[in-house]
Design brief:
Blueprint (H helix, E strand, L loop, with lengths): L1 E3 L2 H13 L4 E6 L5 H13 L2 E6 L19 H10 L4 E3 L3 H4 L1 E4 L13 H4 L3 H16 L3 E5 L3 H13 L5 E5 L19 H7 L1 H9 L5 H14 L3 E8 L4 E8 L2 E8 L2
Helix pairs in contact: 6-7, 9-10
This protein binds pantoate.
C-alpha cells in the first residue's frame, strides 16, 4: 500500500491508473478504523480495480463544543488494517490541500440534510458536504462507498453528487454490528462496560418500531430508550421516502446513531 500526503502526487497516481483503464474506488474516513470500515473497503475492492482510502478528521463538521480534539486517532494502526484488506493507497490529506483558503470553501448540503441530524448538529452536513466535495475533486474516483449507519449523510452525498453532476457512483455499505447488534462506530471506544450494555438496546428498540412505525410507537420507543438508561434521546423518526426508522441519543457523553429499514 502506498501512503500519499500530497494532492498532486495522488492525482498523478489516479491519472496513471485511469489511463490504464482501471476503475478507481474511494472510501473517505476519519480513521479510528473498525470492522465496519473494513467491510466498506472490501466492498470497494469488489467493485473497483484500485481502492484509495483517506483519513482526515475534518474540523468543519465538528461544532466548537464537540469532540474534535478527543476524536480517536491511530494512523499507524489504521494503516496496518488497510494493508491487511488490500487497499492500494492511503491518502492523508494536508490541511492546505483540503482548505487552501482556510475554512472559506463552502458547499451547502441540499434537501436531504433537512431535519434529523441537522436539528441537533446544524453545522454537520455543511462540513461533510464541503470536505467530501473537496476530496472528490482531488481523488476523482469512479465510485465511492459510505456506510449506511450514517444514513442521512449517505443521502446528502448522493444528492450532492447528482445535483453537481459529479459522475461518481455512490454506494451504501450495510451497517456492521457487534454480536449484540450495536452498530460499530469509532465513538463506541468512549463507552464504559455499563454504557455499552445500554447502547446495545438501541438497535433492538428501533428494530421493533420499524415493524410498525406509527407516531405512537415512535414515542414509545423514545420512552423505552430513556427507561433503558439513555441520558437523552434526540429523535426516533420514520422517514417514509427512505423506508427507514432513524434514531439518535446519548449514553453518558457518547452520542449514538442508528437506523433500521422498515418492511
Ligand atoms: O463518515 C465519516 O467518517 C465522515 O463524515 C466523512 C464522510 C469521512 C467526512 O469527513
Amino acid at each position: 500500500m502506498i501512503t500519499v500526503k500530497d494532492a498532486d502526487e495522488l492525482q498523478a497516481l489516479v491519472t496513471g491508473w485511469k489511463a490504464n483503464g482501471l476503475k478507481v474506488g474511494f472510501v473517505p474516513t476519519m480513521g479510528a478504523l473498525h470492522d465496519g470500515h473494513l467491510s466498506l473497503m472490501r466492498m470497494a475492492k469488489q467493485k473497483a480495480d484500485k481502492v484509495i482510502v483517506s483519513i482526515y478528521v475534518n474540523p468543519t463538521q465538528f461544532a466548537p463544543h464537540e469532540d474534535f480534539d478527543a476524536y480517536p486517532r491511530d494512523v499507524e494502526g489504521d494503516a496496518k488494517l488497510l494493508d491487511s484488506v488490500g487497499v492500494d493507497a492511503l491518502y492523508l490529506p494536508l490541511e492546505s490541500d483540503i482548505y487552501p483558503d482556510g475554512a472559506s470553501i463552502n458547499v451547502q448540503a441540499g434537501k436531504a440534510a433537512e431535519g434529523l441530524e441537522t436539528e441537533f448538529r446544524p453545522h454537520f452536513f455543511h462540513g461533510v458536504a464541503t470536505v467530501v466535495h473537496r476530496l472528490f475533486e482531488v481523488v476523482q474516483p469512479d465510485l465511492a462507498v459510505f456506510g449506511e449507519k450514517d444514513f442521512q449523510q449517505l443521502q446528502v452525498i448522493k444528492e450532492m453528487v447528482a445535483e453537481k453532476d459529479m459522475g461518481i457512483e455512490i454506494i451504501g455499505g450495510p451497517i456492521a454490528r457487534d454480536e449484540y447488534g450495536l452498530a460499530l462506530s469509532s465513538r463506541n471506544a468512549y463507552l464504559s462496560e455499563d454504557e455499552l450494555e445500554i447502547a446495545r438496546m438501541l438497535n433492538q428498540i428501533i428494530h421493533n418500531v420499524a415493524q410498525d412505525p406509527g407516531e405512537e410507537k415512535l414515542k414509545e420507543a423514545e420512552q423505552m430508550l430513556e427507561t433503558t438508561g439513555f441520558d437523552q434521546v434526540d429523535y426516533v423518526r420514520y422517514k417514509s421516502e427512505w423506508n427507514r426508522v432513524l434514531a439518535a441519543g446519548w449514553v453518558g457523553k457518547t452520542r449514538l446513531i442508528d437506523n433500521c429499514a422498515t418492511q
